[in-house]
Amino acid sequence: MDALTIGFVFDDSLDVYDGVQQHILTLGRELSRRGHHVHYLVGQTIQPPVEQVHSLSRNVLVSFNGNQMRIPIWVFSRAIRQLLNEVHFDILHVQAPYSPVLAGQIIERADCNTGIVATYHIATTGRLQLLGGQILGALNAHSHKRIDNIIAVSPIAAQYAQITAGARGCIIPNPVDVAQLLERRQATGDEQIERYRAGAPHIVFLGRFVARKGAQLLLDALEWGESQGIFPPGTHVTMAGKGPLLEACKRQASNLRMPVEFLGFISEEDKPALLASADAAVFPSSGGESFGIVLLEAIASGAKVTLAGDNPGYRSTLLNDEDALFPVGGDRQLAAKCLAERLARVFYDPVWAHELGNRQRAFLNRYNVTQVADQVEEVYRQALSNR
């Protein structure tokens, strides 16, 4: 494909590295490697992680869907006009749902020859969130007509796009830079991996300490399994991340006999070594997930087995593999029991665990950024043909 000038449009900041930020930066690096000229038209960003970042608004921090995001409340209209006049964008790639304050203005002001693509990332957790999405869809109805092609990162995100904006399109998953993860893992060396593993069965949790991410469910499962004596001697747990429930989880973990270490925030450079040390990397999210990038990071980094809460986003990412999924809704005690028994099987049924790990590694390439970028380039080609 000939070199394009591409602008990723995103209402939030690039000062943090959450899922959507990870999506556009991973994809943007690959597109740049292919010779495209990539810009980032984003909300308030003080420390840009890459070049060609255009900070075009003032943002305020809000909570939605169990996440924190920074939404634009004031845009620099003159800067938007100047940028669109100075740079001819072949493609504007909008991250959706989007705000009429920033992304909506950029879409409305785009050159008529610019192809516009929108990628939907979100899954709702209840009626209130869905109503908010429908209201936002109504506010964006005019600008949404200007979009040439729609992408959703998963079936649940596609459902959200259809319900809130009447938008239909193709499903292209979130990208993971497998080569980069392997490089980071090798850079830390086997010594760090073995330090985490400590020569004994190792369970790893990585995520925010908020209710829907399920850290407390994992601790419930450890309590139940320990009371039944189903974990092998020496089993230990590492939990990484921050959030409002961190102290409560530390108190709960203090009731266990098995050691549980809380690392707090872990850098992107250190993440692959931690995940590689896991006999079981566990992500018990109860919902609100449109995809499961962290699952793929665990697999790519070398976790022996990756287990996930059975929510629609995680289920689609793991290709409906029942062995990798455990229940997270309904009876919490039953969910804890199921997770504990699944963890015990990882340790006591090595043939089953080996086969599960092999299945997970086998499908990893479908999410590799090199494969995803091929599909995205084809959508760009279609959008340009529409123009």
Task: Write up what this structure looks like.
There is one protein chain. This protein has 387 residues and is α/β, with parallel strands linked by helices. Helices cover 44% and strands 19% of the residues. The protein has helices at 19-33, 77-86, 103-109, 127-139, 141-144, 155-165, 178-197, 215-228, 246-253, 271-276, 293-301, 312-317, 332-348, 350-362, 369-386; strands at residues 5-10, 37-42, 53-55, 57-64, 67-75, 91-96, 115-120, 149-152, 170-171, 202-206, 236-240, 260-264, 280-283, 306-309, 325-326. Helix 12 (312-317) links the parallel strand 14 and strand 15 (325-326).
CATH topological fold name of the largest domain: Rossmann fold
CATH superfamily of the largest domain: Glycogen Phosphorylase B
In which range does the helix fraction lie?
40-55%
- Terminus-to-terminus distance: 17 Å
CATH architect. name of the largest domain = 3-Layer(aba) Sandwich
Quick one: CATH class of the largest domain?
Alpha Beta
Mean pLDDT: 93
Describe the sheet with the most strands: 7 strands, parallel
Rg, Å, rounded: 21 Å
Structural class given helices, strands, pairing? alpha/beta
Number of E strands = 15
What is the count of structural domains?
A: 2
Major sheet strand order: 3-2-1-6-7-8-9
Order of helices and strands: EHEEEEHEHEHHEHEHEHEHEHEHEHEHHH
Query: Strand percentage, roughly?
Result: 15-25%
Shape: elongated
